[in-house]
Each structure stands twice: as structure tokens, then as C-alpha cells.
Amino acid sequence: LVNYCSKFIPNFSTITAPLRKFDRKKVPWTWDASHQEAFDQFKSSLSEQCTLAYYDPNRSTSVVADASPVGLGAILVQHDEQGILKVIAFASRALTVVEQRYCQTEQEALACVWACEKFHLYLVRCQFTLYTDHQALEILYSAKAKQSARIQRWALRLQQYNYTVKYRSDTGNPADFLSRAPINEPSGQSITEEYINFITEQAIPRTITLSEVQEATKNDKELQSVGRTLQFGNWKDKSISAYFAVRHEITSVRGVLLDKEAEQHVKECLTCQISGNPEPPPPLAVVSPPMAPWSCIHVDFYGPAPTGEHLLVMLDETTGFPEVEIMNKTMCLPDTDCQTNARRRTRKSSIKEGDTVLVKQKKKNKYTTMFRPQPYKVINVRYSRVTAQRGDHVITRNVSHFKKFNVAYRETVPNPESEDDITIAAPQAGQDNDQDIIEDRYPLRANRGVPPDFYGR
User: pTM of whole model > 0.90?
Assistant: First the structure.
């Protein structure tokens, strides 16, 4: 590696004089202060400004990758105006326990993939040459090669780059040293993530925590009075009259008094809303207990059983006595589904026509937010079924899939990656919208695996 960078190191021959004698035959091994000084000068020379050059997207770019049984190495280089190679960046990492069990071909192929993704910002929009000391990769990464499943997956990851694989022997591969002395950093470790975590931890005051603020607020009678007054709006207490002038600027969140602008900013922040928790389901309304047996009953289907049948279960709310009947089918009259969207004993949702809402999305990976970042506008509300629209994109969901958003609605382009959207035509004037949003209702307990005991057997 030092010989490869010798053209960038001033007085290279003078520095290497104490170490070159070890290349001769019959020279005893003795390591003294002069050898250590020369070795330290090499390490400092590799990181000096005269060694590393600035990246220029208009110059020809090359990536040199190599793998060893313990690590991976990569070098990003470019040719200057005189055609001299200039090093842009070095990179290396250790192999994981699983990667160390790969064959040599797979390790070399992994080095090429890792090197390109490591220098992704430099290579994503330019044509470059990928050098490797494993000649088989010239064929494996070609279009006509028959690859293994693992190398095929790596080849798919490299399709975003415009590259050409070329072979270079070990003697001309400067990344060989980086792969044999890698940095102890596994593949899943991210320097950016560590840096962000460090900033987050250092930004939190170590002298006080949120729980301590909550505890101190709970023990302060004056702040407790202010919190109750903000909740009920009664400002007759003279001990807190000083807070009356700023009553519109403060609020109470989790027992802590905060600036009201902070709470309002979080409510109107699109990023905060799509990353937040969904709203809880509407609670059941309080009803009076029944006055006599069989004056109030609960009816539901259970099944399907392994034989394909369903159980019609009827339960008396007063006594808890059950009645069960075996049913061959659950549909009797077509008109019975007309009011299935109206759930009994549930409070009315706060979502109304014209509101701006966020819609839940499927969890694809750990970075997927709870809600889609594109807001929708509610165009129809029927019981617990809500229809929302964004541009020409219309979806119909249960009210639990929506979250009210306070920011004014903006027309945006539909997201083509959403696979679970139900796209329907916008309702025309004079048409019955009730029939457009009715969907089949399936038993909510259909996924239970344990079959019930038939009643009376």
C-alpha cells in the first residue's frame, strides 16, 4: 500500500531507507527506534492532505476492491489532468462470522458490492471501472454468466451502477493490505447512525430528566393549580392570576407546563404526525344494565369450524346464559348488510367531510412510518366507513385507519407504491353513494384455530 502511494509521499526513498534492508537475504531481524520512526511516518503520510485528492465528477473514476479471510478493503481513485492516479478515499471493514465461511469467490464478490455501496455518493451517477484480483468475477458479473443465488442477489444490488469489471493481479492491487488489516467494524454498523445517537445523547441535559420535571410539577401546588385551571378554564384563584395574561401561550402535556406554540407545532408538523401513534379506538358508550333476563342479548357468529359450519351464539347479558345453534351459512337476506357499517354503542367519530386526514400504511420495514406522508381529504363519511381522496386517488377505509390532520389540505400526486389502496371512481351527482362503499363483512373471529365444542353433543 505504501509503495502504491509512494508518488504522493515526499522524500519516499529517504523514509524507506531503514526498512529496505529487510528485503535483503541473510539480514537479521532487528526493530529499533529508527524503524519505528519510519513506520510512523508512513502512517501519517497516508492521511495527510498531499495524499488524498478532491473528488471531481468530470474525471475517470476507478474502484479497487479486495477480500481476505478476515476483512474487506476498497480504494476510490481518479486520474488527474496528467493521467496520474489520485487516491480519493480508503475503506475497510472486518468480515462477520457468517461471511468468513463464504468461499473465496463469494468473498471477492462481496468486496465488490460493499465497495460500490460504500462509495455510493461518488459512483451513483458516473461510469467507473471496478478492479478485482479474482479473475472469475469478470465472468460472474457479466450478463451471460450462470451465477449462484447469493451472487445473483449481489448482482441485482449492483445494477444501479454503470461499471465495468476488470482483473488486476495481487501485485498491482493496493487494496490487498486494507483487506488483511481491516477496521473492526461489522457490516451492519453505521457511522452516521452512531454520530446521530451521540448528538442525541449529548443534547439531553444530564442534570435533569423528564420524569424529574413531572415529579417536581406534581409536588408544586401552584403549578398544579395552573394545570387544573388550563383544563377547566376557571381563573378565579388569585394565587395564579399572574398566569392569566399568558393563558393562551401555555398548555399542560403529561403533567408538564409547556409553551403552547410547541404543542401546536407538533400537531401541524407532517413528519411528527406520520411518525406518531394512531388515535385510540372510540370507547364504548356507557349503557344502563338490563332490568330483566333476556331483555338485552348479544349475538355473534363463531367459526368457521373444520367442517365448514358456523355457530350462532346468543348470550344473555343479565344471566350470561348462552344459546348456540349450528348454521350452514351466515347470509340470509341481502338487505341485512345495509347497516353493518353502523356499530352499536360506539361514539361518533370526530372525522367529518372536508377534513384533512392521514391514512395508515402497511409495515414494510422498520423505517416505515405508521401513516402515509401524503394527506387525504375526506369526501364521504357513513357511520364508521370513511372515503377520502387525494387528486384522482380515492380510498375507502374504516375510521380506525384514519388520523385527523390539522394542516390545510394540499393536492399531491398519488403514491404508486401503495399496493393496498382501493381506487374507485368519484361518485357522480344523483348517484347513491351508499352502495359504492359497502363491502362484504366477514366474521371477526375467523382466525381462531381452536374449534369449539358443538352445543348439545
Answer: no
